[in-house]
Design brief:
35% of the residues lie in helices and 21% in strands. By secondary structure, the chain is of the alpha/beta class. The longest helix is centred in the N-terminal third of the chain and has 16 residues, at 66-81.
Length: 429
């Protein structure tokens, strides 16, 4: 019998995680940059594919995008399995088929629905912080239910976001294993290399990437520091809808992309964001029906400037369509440059209050919304277009509208709230 030796020797931290996943069904591993998490993930799935007693084993690695998962893991998967006789590789589907009918497939999380209807015995989510919040509860968790599959989340912190929430929740769950590997503790990155990196990076960047800091801001974060300050000032808490005040709803429109709604109430100069909603591949009447069902006392429906575009098929604008469905008074936000809109958004956010429970998706998006660092130019890019962009754009509509339009609500309350530090919990009429 020929023995096949895979060219992989786990490091102590990798070995610890391999062993713990024999005991636990779920795991969250926080690991510093260059810690070998992708190599670990690929080799753990290979071992499971070769040794699992389950018929037709199915393993999967999810990364934020298809391009990213291909760059990160596809070459590793082929490299570590090439010596196994009878292996087959599907470059189009990023799938490796084993001679025992096991299979490992790589997925990009930008399209969550691509994995619906499949079952998995072992799933690794790489850089879960950058994924859509629906991935685990709506896609992955049901896919491992019938065969009691396992799931491991690995990544480097990028602020107190989705990955942070998962890590904190897992620590109190007996079914879950959690671990954190910092560069100063693992010894995997030479000391001289760490010192050199620290000189070139900001302190926030270094602490996040190498010391697994949750509190260090996301690199290039647009709103991160403001939200962190809002957390400290308890401006992100319980701020429910008050039927005694009028509501303005702000839209970011998408067709095949997401449409996002923000529900706000203004009390004096304080803006309260008390609810949000998003969906995709839905017409305007879906959102009109949803708003009616909320029972909120709507004063204004505010849309971005592109609602005035006319449809070639009908000759009518989406503005006319929305108006016919009862979305009125309907206001159109003036077109402003992205950077001017972001500036307005930063100013308004510092004066605002956000309901944590109802606006979790909005908060997650605002925390993650960021610019990419361009090494050659040594500057930050325009904000990255990803799952966070839609809620961030809805907020930009809100900020520009309040700057350019007369949206002042509840004028009778002005005497109670003349300053920007107004706390809506202190006054109830």
């Amino acid at each position: 019998m020929k023995v096949i030796k895979i060219p992989y020797t786990p490091r102590p931290q990798q070995l610890e995680l391999h062993n713990k996943l024999k005991e636990y069904r779920f795991a969250v591993c926080v690991m510093h940059r260059r810690g070998g998490k992708t190599v670990w993930a690929v080799n753990h799935l290979i071992k499971e594919a070769l040794t699992s007693e389950k018929k037709n084993f199915r393993g999967a690695i999810f990364a934020p995008t298809r391009v990213q998962v291909k760059l990160l893991a596809w070459d590793y998967l082929k490299e570590f399995t090439r010596q196994i006789p009878g292996m087959k590789y599907n470059e189009t589907e990023l799938r490796a088929d084993f001679p025992n009918r096991s299979r490992i497939t790589l997925f990009g999380a930008e399209n969550p629905d691509s994995a619906r209807g499949q079952y998995f015995d072992f799933v690794v989510c790489d850089e879960y912080a950058q994924m859509d919040s629906r991935m685990f509860p709506e896609i992955i968790r049901p896919a491992v239910a019938d065969r009691l599959g396992k799931v491991c989340f690995i990544g480097t912190p990028q602020g107190m976001n989705l990955f942070y929430d998962l890590f904190e929740e897992a620590k109190g769950n007996k079914e879950w294993y959690t671990c954190m590997f910092k560069a100063s503790e693992t010894g995997l990155v030479p000391k001289g290399e760490l010192e050199s990196a620290r000189k070139l990076m900001t302190e926030d960047q270094y602490m996040q990437e190498f010391e697994c800091s949750w509190t260090a801001n996301i690199s290039g974060s647009v709103y991160g520091k403001i939200i962190q300050k809002m957390e400290e000032e308890k401006k992100i808490s319980h701020f429910p809808y008050d039927p005694g005040y009028e509501t303005t709803v702000f839209f970011d429109l998408g067709l095949s992309d997401q449409t996002c709604l923000l529900f706000t109430q203004q009390i004096g100069r304080a803006l309260i964001v008390f609810d949000c909603y998003n969906n995709s591949n839905q017409s305007l009447d879906h959102y009109a029906d949803y708003i009616k069902k909320t029972g909120y006392n709507i004063k204004n429906y505010v849309f971005p400037h592109d609602i005035e575009q006319r449809e070639l098929s009908t000759g009518h604008s989406r503005k006319e369509y929305a108006y016919s469905m009862g979305m009125r008074p309907l206001r159109v936000c003036p077109k402003l440059s992205i950077e001017d809109g972001i500036h307005a958004g930063q100013i308004l956010l510092a004066k605002s209050y956000i309901d944590r429970a109802n606006c979790k998706k909005f908060l997650d998006a605002m925390k993650w919304y960021h610019r990419k660092w361009l090494d050659k130019q040594r500057v930050f890019s325009k904000p990255v277009h990803d799952h966070s962009s839609h809620y961030a754009d809805a907020w930009r509509v809100c900020a520009v509208a309040y700057q350019e339009l007369d949206l002042n609500q509840n004028r009778r309350l002005e005497k109670f709230a003349t300053g920007t530090n107004y706390n809506p919990l202190e006054v109830r009429i």
